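Following up on my earlier thread - several people asked me to post the actual chain instead of describing it. Fair enough. Here it is, all 544 residues.
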Amino acid sequence: MTSLSSPESAELAAAVARRRNFAIISHPDAGKTTLTEKLLLYGGAIQQAGAVKAKGEQRKVTSDWMEIEKQRGISITSTVLQFDYAGTTINLLDTPGHQDFSEDTYRTLAAADNAVMLEDAAKGLEPQTRKLFEVCRMRQIPIFTFINKMDRPGREPLELLDEIEQELGLACWPVNWPIGSGDRFRGVIDRRSKEVVLFERAERGKQSEERRLDARDPELAQLVEPELLATALEELELLDGAGADLDLELVHGGELSPVFFGSAMTNFGVRPFLDAFLELAQRPCSRPSASGDVDPLSPDFSGFVFKLQANMDPRHRDRVAFVRVCSGKFEKDMSVRHARSGKTIRLSRPQKLFGQDREVVEDAYPGDVIGLNNPGMFAIGDTLYVGPKVEYEGIPCFSPEIFSWLRNPNPSAFKSFRKGVNELREEGAVQVLYDTDQSKRDPILAAVGQLQLEVVQYRLENEYGVETRLEPLGFSVARWVTGGWPALEQVGRIFNCKTVRDAWDRPVLLFKNDWNLNQLAEDHPEFNLSAVAPVVSGVEPIAL
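Reply from S.P.:
Thanks for posting it. Predicted structure:
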């Protein structure tokens, strides 16, 4: 291991201490894109926040850069937004808001140190939030809860907390408490300082004004209806009586969630959330690798690829690999080893990303995300390192539920069709499967949701100039054969399922329904199947 001189190690330690990295998880329509924009507004990264469905001249949101996202008012790609606020460098990993893209969100969570769980005050916990919460729990990511849309009619705050504790088994500690709700939402009480934070409605897209007063200040009676304030203080007493403390060890272990109330749309509570989050969030920490945990303060650079994105800049037909820096200092033009292939690569044009905008980056530290031009060499889960070999845990693929042949009706466009399919598979936009009959050349697209398939078709047409047809296969369950082809041969002929190959030439069985899958398990109890694809290392995928 290379040793750093003390000024270099002090610089690395200071840079790590200054960094915070997080992803927002939520159900569609809970307000994730709006909250993201408002955090950027307070961070000074943008001058005016855009609304998701922009009307007329209103700004489009920064984090939605793909044309189809702007048309539909949804987020379907992950982007990275880095900005500085109050002496802290924040890396906000923006995740897709549509449930068909939970796989992309899972990969992004692999690169996050903290998660912000966003809830709609009227709806409480929703299915997509629960699913993503389970991923955070698996990885023991600290979870901060922001209860949004307090300026609209909603459920009682105590009821919302109770639901999180009962259904997710996650203890809650409200950092602030709302005064009123709906059209009588007046602000929040900071539980630790006992200050009342009152909000003035801001001009659309601008930062809101806020006033801070002591909870005992007589002036409050003129500013807030006494019964609203009395109810809020009474509820806070109840919470204090419950006796739990804000224990940072429990927060960082993912067992206790600090809770905040506000309204991203009107900017109520966004700044108090950001200030408290920076104080309480986990800094970049050690990550498990094949040779043990790697400390972010280790002097040797290492990082892993958690996302690939093709054609972020349509003019240049580029492919970008998003790399999470895990240890050491990254410097422009440095040469690194690619763990899977063993090759040495010079990283000459690293980029700092901000939605679709990018600028060349000179250096980066643990917790940061950099974009690298991908000449077709990187795959999701790849480790890059300097010094002794490091290989981080791969990122698994989950079982898709929708399968369609992707037909190319125009044989003269085969070259562009092949290029598009290979690049979008690399990106993880969908999984690509192949028929075991070599004469059937058309790929099978496998995805969690229908929208993923539509996006692939849209992008093939708009980015690669290829029109395609989708033909659904009547299957809804995929399972990988644990022992590979030899295990499959031992079982002999299997009925009511189709055998296909994945991009790493491993057998995958497709079933019409769970009943057929269970039937096979009963007939062959010794035959092991997995709903998660084995993690790949050191193997090149099949290209179309």
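The longest strand covers residues 302-310. That should answer part of your original question.
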